[in-house]
Amino acid sequence: MRNICMRVNYDGTDYFGFQTQPIGNTIQDIIEKSINYLTGEEIKIHASGRTDAGVHARGQVFHFHTESKIPLERWCMALNTRLPDDIVITDAYEVPLSFHSRRSAKRKTYRYTINANQFVDIFNRRIQLHHPGKLDIKAMNESLPYLLGTHDFTSFASRHSTKDSHVRTLYEARLDHDTSMCRVDHPRDQGVIHIYLTGSGFLQHMVRIIIGTLLEIGEGKRQPEDMKHILAAQDRSAAGPTAVSKGLMLWNVEYEHLLKKTCDNVLRSSI
Known about the structure:
The protein is of the alpha+beta class. The chain has 2 domains: 2-103, Alpha-Beta Plaits (2-Layer Sandwich); 106-250, Pseudouridine synthase I, catalytic domain, C-terminal subdomain (Alpha-Beta Plaits, 2-Layer Sandwich). Helix content is 21%, strand content 28%. The chain is built from 6 helices and 10 strands. Strands 1, 2, 3, 4, 5, 6, 7, 8, 9 and 10 form a 10-stranded mixed beta sheet that branches. The longest helix is centred in the first third of the chain and has 13 residues, at 27-39. The radius of gyration is 20 Å and the shape is globular. The two termini are 31 Å apart. 37% of the residues are buried.
């Protein structure tokens, strides 16, 4: 028995999320069908975490057990020829049987992208939230440090969350402001805002609720210091709305020890 670990990128626009659903059309369903076609085995893959409908991934990791003797270097090409154009396997590693994509993960990073220019970017519209109204980007940036550390993130969790604990640790929260796509002498263009959040794990809709709250701060409806009061409230109604899914991307998943010797160089090159 072999344990194969893979990294996959996907545009989630046309899918009902990563995890298998009764209605089908998920990333997991399509990958499992492709593996079955390739090996003849009924394979169940296990991902580092689920992504909701419309959410994308640049660094999703999954693993599966197989009896197949296919050489490691052939897996990516063999699967990609059987996958649609919006799903691409980029790396394959053979890992110990004890490795688990979700339980072995140490840190995850999500990126949320906001296009704050006047007009939609037609080339990136599937992976950006378009917000043409004026935003106080400095205030948004000032609010991020309040999220760092270990907190009960109930205020930023879906009301439908089934987790026993909403305590999570956020290691990094940063805002990158790219003005390279702003038109010259057009003051309504504010550029593209990328918000990166790295943590031990994330609750259902956690990143999107944080973004919805940040947008209210950017719009002047809240102050940066309100973020600490929202956290302390431990009440979903204290936070802002849930931002749309299309701006969210699972950016990277980091591991220690089990993958260190086999794929550290690949993981570093993808950051």
